[in-house]
Amino acid sequence: MDKTCALVLAAGDGKRMKSRHPKVLCEVLFKPMLSWVIDSCRLAEIEELCVVVAPDADEVRAVLPEGCRTAEQAEKLGTGHAVMMAADFLEEHRDCSVLVLCGDAPFVDEETIRGALREHRENGHDLTVVAARLEDPTGYGRIIRDENGGLRAIVEQRDADEKTRLIQEVNSGIYWFEAAFLLDALNKLGTDNAQGEYYLTDTVAIAVSEHRPAGIYRAESPDVILGANSRKELARLNEIARKRVIERQLDQGVNIPFPDSVVICPDTVIGRDTTVLPGCILRRSRIAEGCLIGPYTMLTGCEVGEGARVEQSTGEDSQVAGGARIGPYARLRPGSRIGAGAKIGNFVEIKNSRIGEKTSVAHLSYLGDSDVGKEVNVGCGVVTANYDGKQKFRTRIGDRAFIGCNTNFIAPVSAGAGSVIAAGTTVTEDIPEDALAVGRARQETRPGWAREKGKYRR
């Protein structure tokens, strides 16, 4: 969006949230509230961003996108004071329209930002306030209109009389300014109010008194103004966001028969005819059509192919090809790639490994740093011992190998295609193709020993 920039106010601490972290880092659907706001700015094609932070806000800086500027607010003297701290940024963008908004209002969206800017520019405003109507406006600044319906003032809750407090149209804390006007208005702000602070809302009174063009944009959804000052309010934001995402998934053909216990983050894409069962948490994942996910499955950063099943399992930064079956009670750790039609069964852990097509790892095994071919049968209790205490090594198993129960691979080691490894073998040397490997002590039986020397001897 040409000739625009944005200023995000994010210097608040987490005291009211009972948190040692800054409030803007409290998460809605596992994503910091500040990141929701910045992403909406980017979707609206606002590339020049500055975030006002506290001096010790390294955590906040860590979540900012590359190229995002910061300004420090050492003293908490109000929203107007926070904007003053970014005067250098505003001066550099003096010929721009500047969006000012709060970093703890995650539901501001691209449509509201674009719509308000359209209103701002089409009417030649120096200042446009985004407003919303609330059934319960308690705590919000009230929009005061003149006899023609135009913007006259914004009165904060603490400074409002009883009549003003009955007004249901409130200030969202989102504004479009012409930067030149904003810089001039900041120099005229005072602290003659109940809080003894510099209110950004006083720029409205300045615009009106100077007969500068100012207006109001009414947001379509009142949710754009919602923020959180307590854990209860944060939980409410999470529930609103959760329901929104689920409704969108339902509209796109995803089957969620019992949605009350399902959490799907907005960065997750799900194909039609996929069923998501209760207890699932799906984050930044892509799930193809016709899959079955759940119940009680958590996927983070995963890709799941068409027709795959992931049941009562967890996966992180992994790929599951079409037709594969995962679980119940399996764990896919980062870097795992499961081939088409493969089976990863109960209490199996896969880490940084490639599992070939139609390979079966049915139960109670650990495969770490391994390359396993197609149509391999991995018996119960198989372990690839990938760590020698200093370094990680890989195990390689060829196509159609048969791995007996309780086999240990001491990496680095390989088993060739078609090889057979007897149960209980510890593999310390490479096994050629089509070979049989037996690496265990020969059984010795001593008749009568238990009766004479065993624990329960007679």
TrEMBL record:
Pathway listed: Nucleotide-sugar biosynthesis; UDP-N-acetyl-alpha-D-glucosamine biosynthesis; N-acetyl-alpha-D-glucosamine 1-phosphate from alpha-D-glucosamine 6-phosphate (route II): step 2/2; Nucleotide-sugar biosynthesis; UDP-N-acetyl-alpha-D-glucosamine biosynthesis; UDP-N-acetyl-alpha-D-glucosamine from N-acetyl-alpha-D-glucosamine 1-phosphate: step 1/1; Bacterial outer membrane biogenesis; LPS lipid A biosynthesis
| Keyword Nucleotidyltransferase attached | yes
Q: Does Repeat appear among the keywords? A: yes
Name the principal localization, coarsely classed. Answer: cytoplasm
Provide the E.C. number(s) assigned to this enzyme: 2.7.7.23, 2.3.1.157
PANTHER family assigned to the protein according to its UniProt record, in alphabetical order: BIFUNCTIONAL PROTEIN GLMU (PTHR43584:SF3), NUCLEOTIDYL TRANSFERASE (PTHR43584)
Q: How does it assemble?
A: Homotrimer.
What's the protein name? Bifunctional protein GlmU
What organism does the UniProt record list as the source? Hydrogenoanaerobacterium saccharovorans
